[in-house]
Amino acid sequence: MTKLSVNVNKVATLRNARPKLGIPNVVQLARLCLESGAHGITVHPRPDRRHIEPQDVYDLARLLKSYRSAEFNIEGNPFHRYMDFARDVRPTQCTLVPDDVAQSTSDHGWDLHRDGERLRPVIDELRSLGCRVSVFMDATTEDMALAKELGADRVELYTEPYAAAFARGHADAQRAARLYGDAARAAYDAGLGVNAGHDLNLDNLPLLIEMCPQIAEVSIGHALIADALELGMARAVQAYIAAIERYPTDA
């Protein structure tokens, strides 16, 4: 089954609006996600600390030690104050993202033809620490084998273009889903695991899973946290797991 990792960045965003109060509590909400069936927790600590603070990373790492089957996924640009977190915490998974310090959110995958050799020693070090390495990628079929050659364990397909196509209507959604299906198969055939994330929600998630049964994990934050405002965190997590299970995978 495709696993759900809940990105708690937006919990930290709300907390940081009134930091002295310490509410909502990022660790407490992460624990609730795990108790409600989530398979892991994702954070993306940025240099400007706009949401996740360094202490959050260490506190969540301690929490995850109490959930032996759950995974901790730390996202970020390895060239922007990221590697110390990986060295200190040694999360289950390190997802390398090519975002700039000034970006509001991640908006493209790596250009491995340009950046691959720069990433290679980073990937080698992270794997030596015992971390699984996932590389954030556009759904470009021909680049998947290059990610494998660089030493990555997985790719995370950047799904904002799919989400935008889904919002435009059925025909566009089907075309985009087939494109992502091709990329997922190419990655799987190259010997890579496949993750996916960005702008996924309860509506567009089932079709993506149907067309990309190779997806091992989705990382979802913004939409899930927004749904939790209406449903409550536990019911929101359960709703996303139900959306995933609508199309169980056997890859």
Structure notes:
- By secondary structure, the protein is α/β, with parallel strands linked by helices.
- It has one domain (3-245): Alpha-Beta Barrel (TIM Barrel), CATH 3.20.20.70.
- The chain has 11 helices and 8 strands.
- It has helices spanning 9-17, 26-35, 54-64, 83-89, 112-128, 144-149, 160-168, 170-189, 205-211, 222-231, 233-245; strands spanning 3-7, 40-43, 71-76, 93-96, 132-137, 154-158, 193-197, 215-220.
- Helix 7 runs antiparallel to helix 8 (170-189).
- It is globular.
Structure keywords:
251 residues, alpha/beta, TIM Barrel, 8-stranded parallel β-barrel, 11 helices, 8 strands
Give a short synopsis of this structure.
The protein is an alpha/beta fold.
Strand segment count: 8
Instruction: Look at the structure and name the CATH superfamily.
Output: Aldolase class I
Radius of gyration: 17 Å
- N- and C-termini, Cα separation: 9 Å
The count of domains is: 1
Please bin the fraction of helical residues: 40-55%
| SS element count, helices | 11
Major sheet: arrangement of strands? 1-2-3-4-5-6-7-8
